[in-house]
């Protein structure tokens, strides 16, 4: 009977084992050769967490630098403070909300106009109206300023012309004289991310090549060198990202020449082409028939097509004759696309070579987003692509990302950092960040 | 005109069976001995283990057992130190056998009701793989009337017809958030049936050795008219029409077994079993939805399973006239090839050990308790379809008890 007792004990002991959970051993957290104790993020709207055509609290909370900083906590990362809008003014600049779909499946959006942080709209002489926002006066780790170009970083009056920058500065527009570069480097830091330069090409492209100019690549190179030299002057390490191909975003790929033409032909089968005012060379524009290589912007009001326009030859339908081409501002025509692509390529060459010279980590956003455009991206059972709304990656403005898109970008930054500095910042859980919100 | 082809989602639930879904808990005496029994005559569980051996039972049997199963899985997403642990849920595989025949006759009739396949996994609604699987509750109950015939002193044969009643309840998050950011939900729920057979040969050339050979056939189980329930934001509901139903056929694989029993002394029984499970029938898994839309297409996914082998060994020691001590163990290879591992049953090669105790309560009544511990080797994988990437590790704890009345 003694053996029997032992046996019972063994079985009871085994049952007790069932309380144990399996656990997988993971590598010890390490910051490698980098120091993440004060991490700052330098950049534009993407860095600020801009989404759905605006900067608002929810977007700020899901900015890629905020996601990165959260993941850095286990490897010596410090507090990461963002210039958040207050909860009372959580809607910040206002943004677009999806309210439904039309019977043909087109999305319907509406601007959010309550609880804004707009302070005043100030006419600045020689520049125009600048929307100013409620001031932010705390510590800052995320220096993302929507709209800023690399071209602007040394321009002293810039703090008077960009409301998103102005709100971070102590002085009111038009009294500011602190250039962006001086502002971001005023307080010591140990690690930085830099994703400036998108607007040097994007601002031109999104205005259909009509409302802005591409930054000159030589100027870009000089400013980029200055920026990186300044950021690394005190020994900080960092990560930089290349500029995505602006033509790979839904802003340029949703309202296509083919789709508009097909819509017109439904009503009038005799129409054979759309007319646009296209770049010939230099600043010479001439009307011609649009081709699929001409990119039409997401914000083009398609209802304009076919509306009568008064011309010397009488009233003619908009967009359908050489005398009434679609306005330049709505079309990034094939030649403008080439100019933009050449600029982006030149900028990226500069960005990568400067980073390599300084031993910085590089996230090649250009290649990464181009791949998604071509092949889509499947991760954690989520199928993502670059399509407007259905793709899950880009927010309602067709340029900026959804929280899920920003989490994916944060992970790519983290992978680049880990590879360069031998750290093992844990990756963020992409599934925990949401996509487009559907009503 | 901003026309979009909204949401062609190749993400709708995909159900997997794996070695992990073969539940080898068909009799407490046998579990105690490492789930051997093809080459033995132990009790009514022979209806499952070897219908050919059933006729050699010295008495009639009626018995029932239950093996509450705790499947504890851990997932570590690649590049993180997160541990996603499956929730504590207890599955209840059971077995019931009745065997009857005239005393010392050349035939016996039997009925087996047992659960050879099943799974209960619940990862919760907030883990990293929620878009692949939240929870799965899968049951297959086989009903098997059986006839066993003694041919001569050495040979006996037996066979049974199998009716399977299967049920499935699978939930998965859909990456379509509503205005408060909450995910959509998919649930596939249904019951189905399938048919098969189980046959065996039992050979007892001497009092020192016995040999068994069995084949349990494939049971192709079809779920017709299962409920396909999709909860998505209102503006997208038309893409996921409700109510909707699905049809799917899943081949539960055949198992070939060879078992040997050795009786070195009066007190010792030693047994060895080899199982070959024909998982390679499981090539693809298709779901056919009754109502399709551009968002909700039928799914067809590659599984490409390979055959799996299990090696088992066990022993029984009759400590007293009333008590038997049992122990055993085994090793099973996985049916799931690299790239196809999923959280439904994060399969891997596994080892297991078992222990058991039998006690004669009265002349005709035995109580048997068993315990099994299974360890699935940690497996680091990126699933080809979902790209869910990380390491799985699983432990399974299975206590069990049965009562057998014989006369």
Radius of gyration of chain A, CA atoms, in whole angstroms: 26 Å
Principal-axes geometry of chain A comes out as globular
Helix content of chain A: 25-40%
- Give the biggest beta sheet of chain A: 4 strands, parallel
Label the CATH architecture of the largest domain in chain A: 3-Layer(aba) Sandwich
Description of the structure:
The complex is a heterodimer of chains A (439) and B (407). Chain A has 439 residues and is α/β, with parallel strands linked by helices. Chain A has helices at 2-17, 45-48, 57-61, 64-72, 158-161, 163-166, 180-184, 198-206, 217-232, 250-253, 257-267, 334-358, 365-375, 403-421; strands spanning 39-43, 95-101, 107-112, 118-124, 128-133, 191-195, 237-241, 275-281, 284-289, 295-296, 308-311, 314-317, 331-332, 361-363, 377-379, 382-384, 437-438. Chain A folds into 2 domains: 39-251 and 333-432, SGNH hydrolase (Rossmann fold); 257-291 and 295-332, no CATH class. In chain A, 32% of the residues lie in helices and 18% in strands. In chain A, the strands form 7 sheets. In chain A, strands 1-6-7-14 form a 4-stranded parallel β-sheet, with helices on both faces. Chain A has a two-stranded antiparallel ribbon with strand order 2-3. In chain A, strand 15 (377-379) and strand 16 form a beta hairpin. In chain B, strands 1-5-6-7-8-10-11-14-15-18-19-20-21-22 form a 14-stranded antiparallel beta barrel. Chain B has one domain (41-406): Outer membrane protein transport protein (OMPP1/FadL/TodX) (Porin), CATH 2.40.160.60. In chain B, a hairpin with a 6-residue loop joins strand 5 (94-100) and strand 6. The chains are: A alpha/beta (439), B mainly beta (407). At the A-B interface, helix 1, strand 2, helix 11, helix 14 and strand 17 of A face strand 2, strand 9, strand 21 and strand 22 of B. Strand 17 (437-438) of chain A pairs parallel with strand 9 of chain B, so a sheet runs across the interface.
């Amino acid at each position: 009977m003694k053996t029997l007792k032992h046996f019972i004990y063994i079985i009871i002991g085994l049952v007790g084992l069932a309380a144990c959970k399996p656990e997988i051993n993971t590598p010890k957290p390490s910051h490698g050769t980098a120091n993440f104790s004060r991490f700052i993020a330098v950049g534009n709207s993407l860095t600020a967490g801009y989404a759905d055509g605006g900067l608002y609290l929810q977007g700020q909370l899901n900015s890629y630098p905020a996601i990165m900083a959260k993941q850095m906590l286990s490897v010596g990362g410090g507090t990461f403070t963002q210039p958040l809008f207050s909860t009372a003014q959580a809607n910040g600049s206002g943004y677009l909300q999806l309210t439904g779909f039309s019977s043909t499946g087109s999305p319907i959006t509406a601007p959010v106009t309550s609880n804004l942080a707009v302070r005043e709209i100030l006419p600045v002489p020689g520049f125009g109206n600048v929307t100013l926002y409620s001031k932010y006066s705390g510590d800052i780790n995320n220096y993302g300023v929507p709209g800023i170009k690399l071209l602007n970083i040394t321009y002293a009056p810039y703090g008077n012309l960009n409301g998103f920058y102005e709100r971070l500065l102590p002085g009111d527009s038009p009294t500011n004289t602190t250039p962006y570069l001086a502002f971001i480097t005023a307080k010591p830091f140990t690690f930085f991310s830099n994703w400036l330069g998108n607007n040097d090409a994007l601002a031109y492209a999104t205005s259909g090549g009509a409302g802005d100019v591409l930054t000159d690549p030589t100027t870009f190179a000089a400013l980029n060198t200055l920026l990186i030299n300044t950021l690394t002057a005190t020994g900080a390490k960092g990560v930089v990202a290349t500029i995505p191909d602006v033509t790979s975003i839904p802003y340029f790929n949703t309202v296509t020449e083919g789709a508009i033409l097909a819509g017109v032909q439904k009503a009038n089968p005799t129409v054979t082409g759309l007319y646009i005012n296209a770049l010939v060379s230099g600043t010479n524009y001439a009307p011609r028939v649009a081709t699929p290589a001409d990119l039409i912007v997401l914000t083009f009001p398609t209802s304009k097509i076919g509306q009568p326009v008064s011309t010397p030859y009488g009233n003619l339908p908009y967009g359908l004759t050489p005398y009434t081409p679609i306005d330049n501002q709505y079309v990034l025509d094939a030649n403008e696309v080439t100019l933009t692509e050449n600029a982006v390529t030149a900028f990226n060459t500069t960005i990568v070579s400067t980073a390599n010279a300084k031993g910085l980590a590089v996230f090649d956003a250009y290649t990464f987003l181009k791949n998604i455009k071509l092949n889509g991206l499947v991760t954690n059972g989520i199928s993502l692509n670059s399509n407007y709304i259905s793709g899950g990656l880009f927010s309602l403005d067709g340029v900026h990302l959804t929280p899920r898109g920003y989490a994916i970008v944060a992970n790519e930054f983290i992978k680049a950092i880990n590879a360069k500095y031998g750290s093992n910042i844990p990756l963020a859980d992409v599934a925990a960040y949401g996509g487009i919100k559907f009503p | 005109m901003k026309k979009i082809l909204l949401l062609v989602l190749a993400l709708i639930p995909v159900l997997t069976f794996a070695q992990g879904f073969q539940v080898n808990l068909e009799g407490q005496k046998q579990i105690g001995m490492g789930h051997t029994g093809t080459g033995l005559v132990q009790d009514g569980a022979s209806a499952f283990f070897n219908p050919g051996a059933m006729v050699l039972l010295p008495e009639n049997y009626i018995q029932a057992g239950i093996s509450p199963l705790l499947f504890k899985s851990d997932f570590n997403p690649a590049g993180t130190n997160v541990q996603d642990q499956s929730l504590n849920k207890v599955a209840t595989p059971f077995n019931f056998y009745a065997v009857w025949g005239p005393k010392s006759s050349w035939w016996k009739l039997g009925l087996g009701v047992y659960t050879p396949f099943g799974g209960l996994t619940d990862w919760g609604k907030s883990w990293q793989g929620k878009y692949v699987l939240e929870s799965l509750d899968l049951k297959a109950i086989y009903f098997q009337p059986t006839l066993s015939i003694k041919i001569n002193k050495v040979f006996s044969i037996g066979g049974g017809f199998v009716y399977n009643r299967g049920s499935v309840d699978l939930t998965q998050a859909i990456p379509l958030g509503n205005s408060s950011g909450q995910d959509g939900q998919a649930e596939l729920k249904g019951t189905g049936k399938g048919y098969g057979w189980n046959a065996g040969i039992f050979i007892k050339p001497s009092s020192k050795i016995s040999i068994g050979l069995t084949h349990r056939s494939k049971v192709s189980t079809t779920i017709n008219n299962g409920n396909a329930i999709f909860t998505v934001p209102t503006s997208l509901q038309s893409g996921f029409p409700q109510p909707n139903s699905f049809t799917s056929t899943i081949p539960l694989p055949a198992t070939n077994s060879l078992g040997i029993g050795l009786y070195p002394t009066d007190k010792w029984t030693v047994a060895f079993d080899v199982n070959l499970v024909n998982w390679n029938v499981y090539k693809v898994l298709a779901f056919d939805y009754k109502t399709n839309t551009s968002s909700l297409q039928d799914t067809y996914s590659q599984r490409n399973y390979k055959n799996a082998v299990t090696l088992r060994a066990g022993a029984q020691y009759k400590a007293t006239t009333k008590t038997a001590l049992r122990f055993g163990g085994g090793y099973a290879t996985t049916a799931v090839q690299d790239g196809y591992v999923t959280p439904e049953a994060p399969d891997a090669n596994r080892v297991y050990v078992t222990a058991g105790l039998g006690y004669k309560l009265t002349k005709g009544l035995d109580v048997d308790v068993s315990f099994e511990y299974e360890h699935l080797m940690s497996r680091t994988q990126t699933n080809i379809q979902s790209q869910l990437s990380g390491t799985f590790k699983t432990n399974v704890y299975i206590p069990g008890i049965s009562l057998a009345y014989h006369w």
